[in-house]
Design goal:
Distance between the termini of chain B: 79 Å
Structural class of chain B: mainly alpha
Distance between the termini of chain A: 26 Å
Oligomer: heterodimer
Largest sheet of chain A: 2 strands, antiparallel
Strand order of the largest sheet of chain A: 1-2
Radius of gyration of chain A: 22 Å
Number of strands of chain A: 4
Strand content of chain B: under 5%
Strand content of chain A: under 5%
Helix content of chain A: over 70%
Helix content of chain B: 55-70%
Number of strands of chain B: 4
Structural class of chain A: mainly alpha
Shape of chain B: globular
């Protein structure tokens, strides 16, 4: 098969170029490690540069494909690969953009964070392989590839959380993450097997068409299928850190090295969501009643319940935390609840493209603001600042630029109009209002108001409290600083550029219906 | 082609520029910023004259101009409001621009004598204030919509605050400035509500329709209101009858007018405002602050004409204020205090005229009053300079020989104020009273007899005030300039320099002659076509704001009729009353050693000296009513509102701490909870769905 990329004929696998970029960069890190196994400054820089360049290439190529029309109706149309096991379309490219940008920021920041650590090649290799898994999740088009790519992203993540081998917190968090992940994977795998039992198909669209044929013939088993659908929903809830499969998140984010927390809470969450979006909208649209008619398994209402509970648990728990990183972890759970609106507000008669597009845009903005916030914590850890809110007191006198960036992240997370978070949350609210799901809208408003409380606690500590003088900022790590500032600039720029980017999200979302 | 109308915004922009220059560079200038102000206001005066000539048709066909220049809020969709800044120049605006820039220019020149020559400090601040004051008023005058007018109305208020409180180190001025600000602001609240009401009702605040090539592209709100009354358009009236709602809107806007134009009961700030420098008083009283209120009514007169009730209220407030303030002026001892009460009283006349349907009369009196009141204040300023800032008239006396220019110009202004033929005030005041009388009598016969009665009550009070006005005016003249000098300061007084006498001379001639622009009784007597102001206001490119339209509206919508009556009889009555007032003052005070004749009034004098206890009751309103109310509100806020808010936050934090405990740290717990919730979801969504389905 040959596709046409901006006027140039190319084999169709070129559409997967962003994923190949991740893979190639991962291989390259191992190569660098073979050349110089003992970590030295030169190899550190080379490793970090490889990871940054690799993920940047993935980010840029995916962005270029989006602009050039690859995988989209106005260009080549969705590109199916490997007998429809993978598909490259606007949705998958959009999420590769998110994963690529987050990976690039995290890799850039890790250069300083990992100073003096051994096994750096392994770190970057794992990050890049996890990113590969995530980009495959965005393209997965059958239940089998979905499971495999999810595991490909999960297994490196467990190792990354436990990366600080001598740190008890890190190791404990890694183990807990792994155990919860194992339970979740089994739930997901069991759900997949039940859906296969009910439909006899693995590919998403084949599942949907077979189910509707079966329903027409009266050979439909909603019981088996229903259990399968709910188990798949929960299995993916693990990846997106949604209640009730969120238990790993606060522990893992707190114990993991801060850049890894940033990576997991932004990129991994986005990948989980793209898989959930594609799976539920391609495989179960009629089952959920999206095409009209009574739903056999009302997964839209199930998503509504999960969304409200996730928002509420995440934000209320975040409000009472004493440690900044743990607060961010819970807020990340809360944001998963916001993004779940993309599935939960798909009521009949509403503009499905708008609902899903709003969620996608929120994930894009979230990729920058949340990554930035965790990277600021990484910066604080680098300086030896403590973990609680009080430890951040008066930090702005010593690091005004970084604190200003953190303020932008936090206010944007809360939905104030300093960054793109304001508009993406506004669109989410608009989507819930259009869908008439007032419970979701109310929960969104109440939780956003509450989130402003705990986000401002950090801002207050940084800018208005007096420092106790124990912390002395001695150095300003260049790459970490650069990553934080780039994330802040992107967050701010996403406010005016929102209107520029949102059409591609809405278009990509509309294609799925 | 760039016509004069393209330069109209510059009329206000020039003084604004002067404001900036004086503020930032004034301290480096030899005259401390006065240069900028004088040049800018001279430029404004030139442009205003050019504009007026264009409107009058001297430079081509007579035209008017109405355009939106800048849109600062663009409404999207149906019913959305678009807010613009624009310029409206019709005969009324052109005349007012001329008056304001003329007075302002003369005040700037006079300030050279009053402030610079007296060695005052802080002059850049003073001239910056004057510049901004002038700019705001000029922009207010050419505003083409109500919101823009409101914005500059407020700026005028701010500037008056800054200038009244110019000597902020003394006790009096800051307090007076605060009082002026708060009292006028009280009225402005109603105005603001009215502005919002007008926009909510009509969707536009335009004073006059904007036309393009003969077709109307944007309706004005008075016209929409007229159509709505005629049933040709429908507007939101918030559950009230259309006419009633328009009356409510008119009265709300009138709140701002009453505050700014110092009408009863919001007049109390104006006498205190005398604490400011005298040139500022002249500007406030003659051309800017106080005139803004009356001008606003004239500007949207097409709207007020739709509501006879609002007109009656305006007339009654005006007539009452005219008399009320005049009686208080009788007992004042300080030169500027007398003038202050005379201002209140004279603006009452203008309101009376507007309420009685005498639009031309009101504009006429606004014009003549601007000239002679500016003259009187500047004359008072001249006396105050000579008396080394002593203002009590009982310390003066006999100044007429030592300050001839000041005396004769002041006399010209006083004759105008008292309404003695042929000085300016006579013609305009006479016309005001005449309009009130004929419309009152005429309307008495119609269905709206109640309105007619009220107009006649207003007329009676206005007529009575003529006597008091003449009396206090000449009491002031005799005490100040006649008789023997009563102090050393008065004995050693000398005439001032050119920068004081030049404005006085200009205005003195004006006070004697401005009335000739509209001599209605003479026109009636001789049949000559000399009612220039009538013709001026009757023509114009914008039909909606001509007196022709207004008289139709007055007759058709408001139902106010004019009686058949000659102008000579009523004119003679008011002249006789004025002469009686002057005569009384002559016998009592034109003696070498006058005494406090007002002591004979006994208890009445105490009442008058205390201004009918107006201040006292307003202070009581503030301290006795508002403060307890505010305390109660505070208690409610602290107790109930804060209580609820604190309650919500404690509940949230408590819930949060419960949610936190779910995270026990034990993986076995997590696995159990995950499994349990999976089971729960399966029961709810699969089993229940199965059973129900």
């Amino acid at each position: 098969m040959v596709i046409d990329v901006a006027g140039v004929s190319a084999p169709d696998w070129v559409a997967l170029a962003p994923t190949f970029a991740f893979v190639a960069a991962a291989m390259l890190t191992f190569l660098v490690d073979t050349v110089e196994p003992r970590p030295g400054t030169s190899s550190n820089a080379a490793l970090a540069a490889t990871a940054v360049v690799g993920s940047l290439v993935a980010f840029l190529v995916a962005g270029y494909f989006l602009v050039a029309g690859v995988g989209q109706p106005r260009g080549t149309g969705a590109v199916s690969l490997f007998q429809d096991q993978l598909v490259v379309d606007g949705m998958s490219l959009f999420f590769v953009v998110i994963v690529g940008s987050v990976t690039a920021l995290v890799s850039l920041a890790s250069f300083d964070y990992l100073e003096g650590q051994t096994y750096q090649a392994e770190y970057y290799g794992l990050v890049l392989l996890a990113a590969t898994g995530m980009s495959l999740m965005a393209s997965a088009n059958s239940l089998a590839t979905a499971f495999v790519s999810l595991e490909l992203s999960s297994l490196p993540s467990y190792a990354l959380v436990a990366y600080l081998k001598r740190n008890r917190g890190s190791v404990e968090a890694g183990l807990k993450y792994f155990l919860v992940g194992a339970v979740s994977s089994s739930v997901l795998a069991y759900g997949i097997s039940l859906v296969y039992a009910a439909s006899g198909r693995m590919k998403f669209d084949a599942v949907a068409s077979t189910l509707s044929t079966l329903a027409a013939d009266g050979e439909f088993f909603p019981g088996i299928l229903g259990i399968g659908v709910v188990m798949i929903l929960l299995g993916l809830a693990f990846k997106t850190a949604s209640v009730p499969f969120h238990f790993w998140a606060p522990e893992a984010y707190e114990g993991a090295p801060a850049p890894v927390s940033a990576f997991l809470s932004s990129a991994s969450k986005a990948a989980g969501f793209v898989l959930a979006f594609r799976l539920f909208l391609t495989a179960f649209p009629e089952v959920g009643g999206l095409a009209g008619g009574d739903p056999a398994v009302d997964w839209v209402v199930a998503a509504q319940v999960l969304a409200v509970v996730t928002m509420t648990v995440g934000n209320f728990a975040a409000a009472t935390q004493e440690k900044v990183k743990r607060m961010l972890a819970y807020s990340s759970v809360g944001h998963a609840g916001y993004v779940l609106i993309g599935l939960a507000a798909l009521t009949q008669g509403t503009d499905h493209g708008l609902v899903l597009g709003a969620s996608m845009m929120h994930l894009l903005v979230y990729g920058f603001m949340n990554t930035g916030a965790f990277l600021f914590v990484a910066l604080a850890e680098h300086w030896g600042v403590g973990r609680t809110f009080q430890d951040f007191n008066g930090l702005s006198t010593q690091a005004p630029l970084a604190c200003a960036a953190m303020t932008v992240f936090l206010f944007s997370l809360a939905g104030l109009p300093v960054g793109g978070g304001f508009l993406s949350k506004f669109y989410l609210l608009l989507a819930t209002a259009n869908a008439g799901t007032w419970l979701l809208a109310g929960a969104l408003i109440v939780n956003s108001a509450l989130s402003l409380f705990y986000y401002s606690r950090v801002v207050k500590a940084m800018w208005f409290e007096e420092a106790d003088g124990t912390v002395e900022v001695e150095s300003y790590p260049t790459s970490l600083y650069a990553a934080v500032v780039i994330a802040a600039v992107a967050t701010v720029l996403l406010l005016p550029a929102f209107g520029l980017l949102s059409p591609s999200a809405f278009d990509a979302a509309t294609v799925l219906f | 082609m760039a016509g004069v109308y393209d330069f109209v915004p510059a009329i206000a922009a020039l003084p604004f520029l002067a404001f900036l220059v004086s503020l930032f560079f004034g301290r480096y200038m030899p005259k401390r910023g006065a240069e900028a102000g004088v040049i800018a206001t001279a430029g404004s005066l030139g442009l205003s004259t050019w504009t007026a000539l264009t409107v009058a048709g001297f430079t081509g066909p007579a035209t008017s101009y109405n355009a939106n220049l800048y849109t600062w809020v663009q409404g999207v969709g149906d019913g959305a409001l678009t807010l613009s800044l624009g310029v409206l120049v019709d005969p009324l605006a052109a005349l007012m621009l001329l008056i304001v820039s003329l007075i302002s220019f003369l005040v700037h020149v006079f300030s050279l004598g009053y402030m610079n020559d007296e060695g005052e400090t802080g002059l850049p601040r003073y001239y910056a204030g004057l510049g901004l004051f002038t700019a705001s008023m000029l922009a207010f005058v050419f505003s083409n919509n109500l919101l823009m007018a409101f914005m500059f109305f407020e700026l005028v208020g701010l500037c008056s605050y800054l200038l009244i409180g110019f000597w902020f180190r003394d006790d009096g001025p800051p307090s007076a400035a605060k009082k002026a600000f708060l009292v006028t602001r009280f009225g402005d609240y109603f105005f603001l509500v009215g502005v919002v009401g007008v926009f909510a009702t009509f969707g536009t605040g335009l004073f006059a329709p904007i036309t393009d090539g003969g077709t109307v592209v944007a309706e004005s709100f008075p016209q929409v209101a007229e159509h709505a009354l005629g049933g040709e358009a429908s507007v939101e009236t918030f559950g009230l009858e259309t006419g009633t709602w328009f009356t409510v809107l008119g009265l709300l806007v009138l709140g701002g007018v009453i505050g700014k134009s110092a009408q009863f009961p919001l007049h109390t700030w104006l006498p205190d405002a005398m604490e400011g420098p005298t040139p500022v008083s002249a500007l406030i009283h003659a051309a800017t602050m106080v005139a803004a209120g009356v001008y606003l009514v004239a500007r949207m007169y097409g709207f007020y004409l739709l509501s006879p009730q609002a007109l009656a209220v305006i007339a009654l407030v005006g007539g009452f204020t005219a008399l009320f303030a005049a009686t208080m002026g009788v007992v004042k001892q300080e030169l500027k205090q007398v003038l202050a009460y005379s201002t209140i009283s004279q603006y009452g006349y203008m309101m009376l005229a507007l309420g009685a349907g005498g639009y031309t009369a009101a504009v006429f009196h606004l014009t003549t009053h601007a000239v002679f009141k500016a003259l009187l204040f500047l004359g008072a300023g001249s006396v105050i300079i000579a008396m080394h800032h002593e203002e009590n008239m009982w310390t003066m006396g006999g100044l007429k020989d030592r300050m001839p220019v000041t005396y004769y110009t002041f006399l010209s202004g006083s004759l105008a104020l008292a309404g003695i033929v042929p000085f300016a005030g006579f013609w305009s005041k006479d016309e005001v009273l005449f309009e009130a009388l004929v419309h009152g009598l005429g309307t008495l016969e119609t269905e709206a007899s109640m309105v007619g009665t009220l107009l006649l009550v207003g007329y009676a009070m206005g007529l009575l005030a003529v006597f008091f006005t003449a009396f206090y005016t000449f009491r002031m003249v005799f005490l100040t300039f006649h008789g023997d000098a009563r102090t050393d300061a008065a004995r050693d007084a000398t005439e001032n320099r050119w920068n004081v006498t030049f404005p006085l001379a200009v205005l003195g001639i004006g006070a004697a002659t401005v009335g000739f622009i509209n001599m209605v009784p003479v026109a009636e007597l001789t049949g000559a076509e000399i009612e220039f102001l009538h013709d001026w206001l009757a023509h114009g490119g914008i039909d909606a704001t001509t007196t022709e339209t207004y008289s139709e509206l007055l007759h058709d919508v408001a139902g106010i009729e004019a009686a058949e009556l000659g102008a000579l009889g009523p004119g003679a009555v008011s002249l006789a009353l004025a002469l009686a007032g002057v005569g009384t003052a002559w016998t009592l005070y034109n003696v070498p050693d006058p005494v406090e004749q007002t002591d004979k009034l006994g208890g009445l004098k105490t009442l008058l000296v205390h201004n009918y206890y107006q201040d006292e009751y307003q202070v009581w309103l503030a301290q006795g009513v508002t403060v307890p109310l505010a305390r109660a509100a505070d208690r409610f806020d602290q107790g109930v509102v804060d209580g609820v808010v604190n309650g919500i936050s404690s509940v949230s934090l408590f819930t949060g701490s419960r949610f936190r405990r779910i995270q026990s740290g034990l993986v076995t717990n997590y696995a159990a909870l995950m499994t349990l919730s999976l089971v729960l979801l399966l029961i709810v969504f699969v089993l229940a769905g199965e059973v129900m389905g």
